[in-house]
## 1
Amino acid sequence: MTRKKVKLAYITNDSARKATFKKRKKGLMKKVSELSTLCGIEACAIICSPYDTQPEVWPSPLGVQRVLSQFQRLPEMEQCKKMVNQESFLRQRITKANEHLKKQRKDNREKEVTHAMFQCLTGKSLQNLNLMDLNDLGWMVDRNLKEISKRSDSLKNVTNSQMAAGPSGEHPSQRAEVPVFEVNNDNMHRQQWFMDLLTPQEPLGFGGSDEMMLPFVDNNQNPPWSNTFFP
């Protein structure tokens, strides 16, 4: 059974808040002790709360004073180098979440354009795609053609190596020629192939619609993804 995710918000119920404080305070002290023992470092903890008349310290008041003295002897820049408060910690979390969201949007957009590309290969029309969609689709087609060309060259090199080696004692003139299929991927052929896709044929759509529209893209406005996703 998975643990229920705890909502990070102030606990309004007094008894529940007090119980949570005691439980998590004990866990925090245990973690500090384990960190100090396992890594051989100097660490301390000071906890002040309305539930205790005196602050609770670990490992001892003398140990806390020793660690604080070491900290105060550091230059001021070193003291603040990795110091965070609640606001800065939340800002770091937000920045990390935004970066993850941006990456996820890019991945989703790439999957959508790939899906549209495969539908184009079945003879569907591109007439209802906007300029941004066509730009992304052109980039996707060009990337796949480059991958095909790279794979073709690799297979051709393997074939040539096998022909050069040949069976032991066999003369090169006795070997049957092996046809090698070459893929011409110059810019003219790419552009001509892509323009052929723009020829009006059967409308391309999603979900049975008569209009071609990539998911999550508003054809009447600028799409939410920019060209930074697909150069």
## 2
Amino acid sequence: MAPLLKVCKELFGTSNLFEVLDVDKDANENQLKKAYHKLSLKIHPDRVDDEEKEMATRKFQTLGKVYALLSDKDLRAVYIETGEVDDEATVTEDRDWDEYWRLMFKKIDIQDIKDFEAKYRESEEEMNDLKQAYLDGEGDMNYVLSEVLCCTYEDEGRFRGIIEEWIEKEEVPDFPNFSEEDKKKKNARKRKAAAEAKEAQQMKKELGLGDDMDSLKALIQKRNKGREEEMDSFLDNLAAKYGGGSGKKKGSKKGK
């Protein structure tokens, strides 16, 4: 088995490159790109704690290699026909995958994130992601909240109501992690959310951001090149975290 396939098996639980991206073999270019974008936002290294960053980086780099191969018609045809990958013919090991990702997708600003969130929230896609996260995490709400795009601690009540309906209809199992969650764990999640909100407000204050879109646009327009780069980095971090959440999503672990 080629090194890339072995690494995919290790990191994503499958050596099937199409399963890594969660697309069909006949997926077109736009479908491939959308799947790559969505998954890369979930696992981007910026979205995880320091102790998980190394693993998230490996996943992010590997995902870039998978997308690069499947988006090449010739390499993809060979893979489909033989099930094998010529690692030397795909991509170089020293490629900057973070830069590659940023070149693939336009820079994201706050309005993009808000537009995406408005479209995603309560959509069929969000419901599918929520159900999958609940099943994968076996009811662990820390896992659920780390896996569903654009969600925050404030979404927990909404998510719990939806999941309880599914349990009542026997669409999903009633995991003890969900129905019997310890109060200490709930309180710890609440404290963490409050700390993150405080940190986000401090970042906005340091960068001179207001809460309205006009103030943000005006600020971007008047920044010199150096300050624009700083703003881009800040916005990229917001996108990573909140789904536009970077890479958060995500090198998460069950029971985190």
## 3
Amino acid sequence: MVKYEDLRKQRLEENKKRMEELNLPLLTQALKNSTSPKTTPMKKTKPRIVGTELVAVRRSPRVAKSPAPEYKEVIHYERVMIPRRLATPTKRDRLFFAYASDEERAASIEKAEKLEASLGSDYPILVRPMLPSHVSGGFWLGLPSNFCRKNLPRRDDTITLIDETGEEWPTVYLAQKCGLSGGWKRFSVDHDLADGDTIVFHLIRPTKFKAYIIRVNNANETVSTEISTSTSSSEAF
């Protein structure tokens, strides 16, 4: 062990002498003391302008040869508003909603068609059976497009429904959708319309319907009395 330590110290001394002969310590110290030269920043050069000229705006080849677009006038109609009634319609519970059977629905339509025949052909008539979507939920009454194109206004308007008592119910008619929107819910709820009821719409004026309600529960009753009263009331208009 002592011999190894002696050899190690001897080797260290020899290496130190060799480093001194090569002046390595002095070179190391000189490198530490020297400072790196400062670099000059690069000058910012501006791109050289050769010349300017006006050129046409580039267009897509698909429309370059096409004529300029033409604009047409768009007419915005005034929004149709209907007066609000003080009472608010009650909500109908779908859990207790009564659905009509096919036999009851057919009997109601048959009775409505008999009433339609008694009204004559002086004014347009529309027979509309009630579905669940007409008398609950969204309360939207769609009308046949052919009937609307021939007899109803071509723009949104107010269409008045007149019941058997002569009371008027304003509704909003949407020409593009061919149906009654605002106001129809009030008419449906206040007249307690149900699934399977049938309404005979008698167009006595361009924007006025005389509405005859055929109840699905009373569809099997005789219609002679109702037909006579209906014809007399329609003649009054």
